[in-house]
Design brief:
With 171 residues, this protein is of the alpha/beta class. The chain has a single domain, classed as Flavodoxin domain (Rossmann fold, 3-Layer(aba) Sandwich). The protein is 32% helix and 23% strand. The strands form two sheets. Strands 1, 4, 5, 6, 7 and 8 form a six-stranded parallel beta sheet that branches. Strands 2-3 form a two-stranded antiparallel ribbon. Strand 2 and strand 3 form a beta hairpin. Helix 1 packs across helix 5. The model has no long low-confidence stretch (mean pLDDT 95). It binds flavin mononucleotide (FMN).
Amino acid sequence: MKTLVIYYSRKGENYFNGSLKIIEKGNTCRVAEFIRDAVGADLFEVETVKEYSKSYMTCIEEAKAELKAGARPELKKYLDDICGYDNIVVAGPCWWGTYPMAVITQLEKLDFTGKKVFPVMTHEGSGLSGAPGALKKYCRGAEVGEGLAIHGADASESPPEVEARALKNLK
Ligand SMILES: Cc1cc2nc3c(=O)[nH]c(=O)nc-3n(C[C@H](O)[C@H](O)[C@H](O)COP(=O)(O)O)c2cc1C
């Protein structure tokens, strides 16, 4: 079984258990790398042309406006073929209850017929929230498998949980 992890993750100022902290590597990026290590997956990072603000509070507003507008932010590079993969993990931070709109920009470009997709979301309390529903809506032709929610502030301590779930679902 060949697995691809499509993920978005934001560096900069973020909220950790009630206080603001600047991070060099995003929480979802850590989790995506743990999945890669557990099952030998490939990674594809969704990166926007226009960067979101490094300030948490400003980014919150930018993300809210994009969600309201149904925006599809332009990406630095696009993945146009997933035919070499059986399983696709779609990992992202919870932004206002769902994936950042940039993830949707990428998903809409792909044909998921015959693929199995797995929602993974890092969050500060909302859990998986809209992730499974978003994959049902935007991953054309896919079967949606079991999701995994990781508390963002604990992302660096998540390997045992990520490994157990990744090995169970993706091998
Ligand atoms: C724009 C924005 C919106 C967010 N909205 C939510 C939310 O609705 N629910 C939640 O639990 N966490 C929310 N968070 C917290 C992030 O989901 C959490 O910190 C996540 O682990 C960040 O992942 P990253 O470092 O990979 O970007 C939000 C963070 C940002 C920046």
